[in-house]
Write a structure and sequence with these properties.
Distance between the termini: 83 Å
Structural class: alpha/beta
Mean pLDDT: 87
Radius of gyration: 30 Å
Low-confidence stretches: none
Shape: elongated
CATH architecture of the largest domain: 3-Layer(aba) Sandwich
Number of helices: 27
């Protein structure tokens, strides 16, 4: 007897595997995000009151999606698979509550993570729960109106005991209305799917009618979200986690439905799905692309670029201080963007001579985003002295864009995996969504976001520094440099050399540099299906120092020949220095399976840091006799989030990091070099 129950239990687990997987995801998501991988995921579960409402609503719907799928398996497994399963009475009575309880760990995590007062957050959870119950009730009412009371007993949901549902059920199925048409369509479809979908009278079984109704409600909400919440309409009002819940609901429905049909024929669902998606990806163009612009004039030939660089140095030196500053901003998600912006803004607050002294900014990944906002604010009349301009730079760099990425994941990226021909234009994806969010930080006084062509004019005139956005070519692993200036080819693979007739929006250049693994897709040029793909600059050098030193080797002699006094390299490091910490010697044998991969991941930053320190030391030694070089490093002591969202606590932590004695000492050194009072 016990063996038989165990066998039935294992069969239930298999037949209901996707619904159970949904429940497991709901149970684990909150604790994992908050306590296991906080650097990547804590921003996902840190929401305001509106976000808590959305996530509570959709997470409960995801749980009840799994509930309906489980009940379908329990009720109809005997007819479909000849497996004698049956729902116990206690489950029928309490299923809405029991399945809803699987969201408790997630909702508790939301309450623990939000910056809202606990009463406000509690009200938000209550509002989301009521909205979810209302959605379930509407779906149930529609299901009951489609069910023939003479042939299908009301044994599927315990909510059929409610008076309003009984009244809906007692009415005959409508024949000349929209619901009658829907009933006829459902019956025609389900009759063709074989046993387990219709009863002995060939009428649709109540569970499948509810499933179809619920799925129709989901499709309506999903379609509405595509148009209502596109990043082009403004700041995203829906949190990224809500979009994850939408994908979870749709995936649970789709996979559970496929399993119920194909398990009868022993066809593996995931294999079928992966093979189908793989075939579609080759039958249709499902690659990722970035948008390009056309240059008015083609790029300079390679032989003229060094002389053009010399001309730029000459023009800049005539307009600016006798000290040349080169910035190297490292990568690391939104923390790198915020740290880069904070360092540049706070230095400028203390020393207005700083902005004119900056000749070049070598930025990587998140540092490219922070540097973008600072470089964009330069003007022909000088860097704006208005403190509010500096405040807006910092605000833009600290503003979350994770929710926009969530929209891109739930819509164009999901469609690209299964219906790539439905994505138009082909540059729309989660990276495009990030660009729209970043572009809002560049809009100022009605002025549209800048292009690289716009920036080039200020560089030619000598009042804007040269930005270099560092990226990596996927197919070769080479450094890929994007700049408004036609850089010498000796610096690396240069965008303007490979694409002499193309240029980019500033946000697109920053996005290519900040192609954070898996958060942003690697992409190739639109209308260039044979072009290579661009990945995050951190793969090659996550510190921006390699490009900065290459610039100093070429530009330094030119600058000093014109009478320049000193070159200052300012490094902005947003990640903590490595330490041995706890060796965790009790890993066990399983550690051997992923230890080599972990080593590869960790050695990247370690090797880059060591190489950069050696090269900077060599460069400093060559200039020590003339006392013409200084190196300053502004760094944080603690790692922060690697995603594109900062919590209020993260922002406060960065403010404290800036006030750390080591950074303030470096600030005093820099302001002294620039001739500003500390």
């Amino acid at each position: 007897m016990a063996g038989g129950r165990i066998a039935l239990g294992l069969q239930l687990v298999f037949l209901d595997r996707f619904a159970l997987g949904t429940l497991l995801f709901l149970v684990a998501l909150g604790p994992v995000a908050r306590w296991v991988y906080p650097s990547l995921l804590v921003g996902v579960v840190t929401l305001d009151a509106r976000g808590v409402v959305f996530v509570t609503w959709l997470s409960l719907l995801a749980a009840w999606t799994a509930m309906i799928s489980t009940r379908i398996v329990l009720e109809y497994a005997n007819e479909r698979f000849r497996v004698p399963l049956r729902a116990p009475s206690w489950l029928e009575r309490n299923q809405v509550l029991l399945f809803g309880l699987t969201t408790v760990p997630l909702l508790a995590t939301l309450l623990a993570s939000t910056d809202e007062p606990l009463p406000v957050a509690g009200l938000a959870v209550s509002a989301g729960a009521l909205l979810a119950l209302a959605t379930l009730l509407v779906a149930t009412l529609v299901r009951e109106r489609l069910t023939d009371p003479a042939t299908a007993p009301p044994n599927f949901l315990m909510t059929t005991d409610l008076p309003m549902i009984r009244r809906a059920r007692d009415k005959p199925v409508p024949r000349s209305r929209v619901l009658g048409l829907l009933h006829d369509l459902a019956r025609a479809l389900l009759r063709r799917l074989g046993p387990g979908y219709v009863d002995e009278h060939q009428e649709p079984l109540a569970g499948h009618l509810l499933s179809l109704t619920f799925f129709a409600c989901f499709l309506a909400v999903y379609t509405f979200g595509y148009f209502a919440f596109t990043p082009e309409r403004g700041p995203e009002p829906v949190p990224a986690l809500a979009f994850v819940m939408l994908v979870l609901i749709g995936g649970s429905w789709f996979l559970s439905g496929l399993a119920f049909f194909f398990d009868r024929y022993r066809v593996p669902v995931l294999t079928l799905l992966v093979a189908g998606s793989f075939a579609i990806s080759y039958a249709f163009d499902s690659d990722y692309y970035y948008h390009r612009l056309t240059r008015a004039d083609p790029a300079l030939p390679a032989g003229q670029r060094v002389e053009r660089l010399r001309s730029l140095v000459t023009t800049w030196q005539k307009k600016n201080a006798p000290i040349m500053t080169v910035i190297a901003a490292n990568g690391g998600g939104i923390q790198a963007a915020a740290w880069t912006a904070r360092a540049l803004v706070e230095i400028q607050r203390q020393c207005p001579a700083f902005a004119p002294s900056v000749f070049l900014v070598s930025a990587v990944s998140g540092g490219s985003v922070g540097a973008m906002y600072f470089v964009d604010r330069y003007a022909a009349v000088g860097f704006p002295p208005d403190p509010s301009v500096l405040d807006r730079i910092l605000e833009a760099a600290e503003t979350s864009s994770l929710d926009e990425a969530g929209w891109g994941l739930a819509y164009p990226d999901l469609l690209r995996a299964f219906l790539p021909f439905a994505v138009y234009p082909n540059t729309i994806d989660r990276a495009w969504s990030l660009e729209r969010a970043w572009a809002r930080g560049l809009e100022m006084g009605g002025r549209p976001p800048s292009t690289m062509r716009d920036w080039a004019a200020g560089i030619e005139a000598g009042w804007r520094p040269i930005p270099v956005f560092n990226a990596t070519i996927v197919e070769t692993g080479e450094r890929f440099l994007i700049s408004p200036v036609d850089l010498p080819d000796g610096w690396g693979r240069v965008f303007s050399t490979i694409y002499p007739h193309d240029t980019l929006d500033v946000v697109t250049a920053a996005r290519l540099s900040a192609t954070f693994p898996y958060v942003t897709p690697i992409a190739r040029r639109d209308r260039g299906r044979t072009d290579f793909h661009i990945a995050d600059g951190g793969y090659f050098d996550n510190f921006g120092v390699a490009t900065a030193l290459q610039a100093l080797r070429d530009v330094g002699p030119m600058y000093q020949a014109l009478g320049g006094r000193k070159i200052v390299l300012v490094e902005l490091r947003s990640a903590a220095e490595p330490s041995l910490g706890d060796p965790r010697s009790h890993r066990g044998w399983f550690f051997q399976t992923f230890g080599p991969i972990l080593t590869l991941l960790n050695v990247r930053a370690g090797a880059q840091r060591f190489r950069n320190d050696v090269e900077v030391a060599d460069f400093a030694a060559a200039h020590r006799a003339q006392d013409t070089f200084e190196r300053l490093v502004f760094k944080v002591a603690k790692d922060g989030p690697l995603s594109w969202k900062l919590t209020e606590g993260d922002k406060r932590a960065l403010r404290r990091e800036w006030l750390a004695p080591e950074n303030q000492q470096e600030l005093r050194r820099l302001t002294s070099l620039l001739g500003c009072s500390s």
